[in-house]
Amino acid sequence: MVESVITITVPAQMKTIQPKIEWPGGHDFAFTIFDDTDLATIDNVGRVYSFLEELNFRTTKSVWPCRGSGTPSFGGPTCEDPEYLEWVQSLQASGFEIGYHNATYHTSLREQTVAGLERFRELFGHYPSSMANHASNAESIYWGDSRLDGIYSSVYNLLLRNRHRQVFRGHVEGDPLFWGDYCKQTVKYVRNFVFNDINTLKACPFMPYHDPDRPWVNHWFASSEGPAVESFNACLSEKNQDRLEAEGGACIMYTHLACGFQEGETVQPRFAQLMKRLSRKNGWFVPVSTLLDFLLQSRAQNNIRPEERARLQRKWLLDKVQI
Ligand SMILES: [Zn+2]
């Protein structure tokens, strides 16, 4: 049982309230990782997970419960591989969270998505608490231009030359890809915007939030950008770690641990150096859902207001343009 205490201090010159959070156990800040399962095998991420476990990080590893019948753009093992499944279940037993990355590595019809969620429950004892859309799957929920409203959606479509315009339909009732009702019933947290700031909570102080205009998702969370080892390490620089600590913030890194974090039997040296340094700080190193549960129960209400949502959408587009 954790006790939630939020102290709010508002200097006169501040226009926006930035709550100072008292983290459970007297920790100074929070840090975790959502690992997108693309390309991940025991051989290319196994050592990374042993390393995280040794340093007492407990993070979130996503999975595909089902093997697809078609060809993926980005694939990897699924929970239908017995050796891989056994390894993933051993991670869960050690305190890692298992997250959801859609039913499989390519687009699934409604029945297949429902079967994927049921399979997840059979394998891990519960429906997924946290998930992230697999970027190319057309049943992704509120994805592509559906992440944005009005002018921001138009700018996004212009930048992407309409490649993602109304492609993603997991939230569209009546569509063969629709599974919004099951998402509402089974999944607690869905990832949305990813920002450059190491302090995810500073970039998105509202998370986890509900968006009344996107009702099939219970709660959204944001993440910090670091899709492969170089960008992850850049985000986790010594200077940024110290700022995360000083700000008492929370970082949810979104990454693909299969992308360069392991070199043969060892962990990439700079990543190892940065994570060891971070582990010596007084951080709360818990899985994504544990962190979000704490934030959620600290809030009186979590419906995002239109002006707050516009701020997130604008910031996300600006971050994207800068990359
Ligand atoms: Zn993916």
Plain-language structure description:
The strands form three sheets. Strands 3, 4, 5, 6, 7, 8, 9 and 12 form an eight-stranded parallel β-sheet that branches. Strands 1-2 form a two-stranded antiparallel sheet. The model is unreliable at 1-16 (pLDDT under 50). By secondary structure, the chain is of the alpha/beta class. It contains eleven helices and twelve strands. 36% of the residues lie in helices and 15% in strands. Bound molecules: zinc ion (ZN). Residues 36, 38, 74, 101, 134-135 line the site of zinc ion.
Give the bound compounds: zinc ion
| Secondary structure: number of strands | 12
Structural class: alpha/beta
Figure out the total of helices: 11
Helical percentage = 25-40%
By oligomeric state, this entry counts as: single chain
What overall geometry do the principal axes of the alpha carbons give?
A: globular
Query: Element order, helices and strands?
Result: EEEHEHEHEHHEHEHHEEEHEHH
Bin the strand percentage: 15-25%
Mean pLDDT: 92
Sheet with most strands: 8 strands, parallel
Q: What is the radius of gyration?
A: 19 Å
> CA-to-CA gap between the ends?
41 Å
List segments where confidence is low: pLDDT < 50 over at least 5 consecutive residues: 1-16
